Amino acid sequence: MENSRRLVFFGGAGVSTESGIPDFRSETGLYQSMTKYGRSPEEIISHSFFMKDPVMFYDYYKNNMIYVDAKPNPAHKALAEWEKKGILAAVVTQNIDGLHQLAGSTKVFELHGSVHRNYCMHCHESYPLAYIMDDNNCKNGVPMCRRCGGMVKPDVVLYEEGLDQQILNGAIEAIRSADTMMVGGTSLVVYPAAGLVEWFHGSNLVLINKDRTNLDGKADLVIAGAIGEVLGELSDKA
Ligand code: ZN
To answer: How many other C-beta atoms can be found within 10 angstroms of the C-beta atom of residue 126?
Structure first.
């Protein structure tokens, strides 16, 4: 890190779980969703299901994917600090909670979108998270556009939807020109995580994860641990 000037951090669900945001793809997440909704998270937060049953979609979404009180943890804070110091070039994240920006990061590629951006499917008017969480703006929990009455959709990449090409390209460009790539809080199985690492041609690939990943053999350094703890400790020393 001392010699890095273009560090790129790639983070998965583990970065958010340490802020109290559970991974809906985990076994517990699957169990809870099957018990309450009789469907898997993948089915409910798919594009076709959103169109077919927005009431159930929003019930699941608001109760399982939105954590308005979540705060940045030491991992978010360390990354924001490294950006200020000129060490870190960008954060690439699969999380949708906006906690990197809340911690102060400005160069963030949100591959799966953000719960903080929402827009009317009809007139494209945009709305903050608070708008869709306010029952006064909703019909059976489904947020409606104040301007035209159209349905409001979160700017989150649902299953069956493609990634935003511009964001993906930005992430690839950052990774391609990085001298160090740090990957944390992801088992690297969720698309497109594993593929993105292949764009990295710098000197140091660092993996930080509680469990083993299938890229451990390729890494220059593997740290087994919780991402918040590890980055928090690193930050104290940097
Ligand atoms: Zn509208």
So the answer is: 11
Angle at 132 between CA 156 and CA 100, to 5 degrees: 50
Q: Report CA(52)–ligand 1 centroid distance (Å).
A: 19
The pTM assigned to this predicted structure is: 0.94
Label residues 98-107 b or e (16+ Cβ within 10 Å = b).
Answer: bbbbbbebee
What is the per-residue pLDDT for 21?
95
Q: Give the distance (Å) from ligand 1 centre to CA of residue 151.
A: 7
Q: Cis omega before residue 192 (within 30°)?
A: yes
Helix and strand numbers (H, E) in the chain are 11, 11
pLDDT tens by residue, 207-225:
999 888 878 888 999 999 9
- Tell me the backbone φ, ψ of residue 204, rounded to 5 degrees: -125, 120
Q: Measured in angstroms, how far is the CA atom of residue 100 from the centroid of ligand 1? A: 29
Question: Catalytic positions, please?
Answer: 112
Domains and CATH numbers, the chain: 7-21+72-112+157-237 (3.40.50.1220), 22-66 (no CATH)
Which pLDDT score is estimated for 118? 98
pLDDT band at 191 (very low <50, low <70, confident <90, very high): low
- 180-184 and 152-156 as β-strands: parallel, antiparallel, unpaired? unpaired
* Ligand 1 centroid, distance to 146 Cα (angstroms): 7
Average model confidence (pLDDT) for the chain?
Answer: 94
